[in-house]
Amino acid sequence: MAETKKHLLTPDGLKELENELHELEVNQRAEISKKIKEARELGDLSENAEYDAAKDEQRDIEARIDQIKKILNNYELIAEDEVGDTTAIKIGSKVKLRDMELKQDMEYKIVGSTEANILKNLISNDSPIGKALIGAKKGETVKVASPAGIIRYKVLSFK
After folding, report:
1. Which of 152, 156, 127 is nearest to 142 (CA)?
2. Alpha-carbon distance 15 to 140, whole Å?
3. Residue 66 in 3-state DSSP?
């Protein structure tokens, strides 16, 4: 059997997943169970939209619980204070960049793909920009291929 790829998680990402799992298993399951019970009491289930919606929501909750459990059974913790090379960007680094074309500064934290969330400025080490940044040093300019062409970013700082 082929070995599956480990999910890379930072301590914050691990805590967030554990909290989400607890919320789903304890609170969401109880809430959806109550919704299903109330919908059943409305009568004929074959034409009961509330029942169908509640069952769909239950399937979504159970699928997410299963997904989180699979991640938690096969993860590798990225220690952010890990001793090692602090002269180059790695997973767990918080990076300040300048888009050389737009002259805009931005900050990202490089995380594993499981944790990535662009709305929270968490970018995956597997993303084009994440791949370009891994191993880069302060002052370097990295090039990232995008549909609009090559974008250049200067590494202003990282920690």
Report:
1. 152
2. 33
3. helix
SS (H, E, C) 79-122: CCCCCCCCCCCCCCCEEEEEECCCCEEEEEEEECCCCCEHHHCE
Distance CA 116, CA 109 (A): 9
Which stretches of the chain are assigned E, i.e. beta strand? Answer: 7-9, 75-77, 94-99, 104-111, 122-124, 141-146, 149-158
Query: What CA–CA distances, in Å, run from 84 to 36, 88, 112, 131?
Result: 53, 10, 18, 19
Q: Which residues pair with 47 in a beta bridge?
A: none
Instruction: List the end-to-end C-alpha distance of the chain, in Å, as a whole number.
Output: 39
Q: How many residues does the chain have?
A: 159
Q: What amino acid occupies position 29?
A: R
Classified as helix, coil or strand, 54 is: helix
- Model pLDDT for residues 52-68, shown as the tens digit of each residue: 899 999 999 999 999 99
pTM for the model stands at: 0.74
Q: What are the tens digits of pLDDT across the range 98-118?
A: 999 999 999 999 999 899 999
Gap between the Cα atoms of 92 and 11, Å rounded: 9
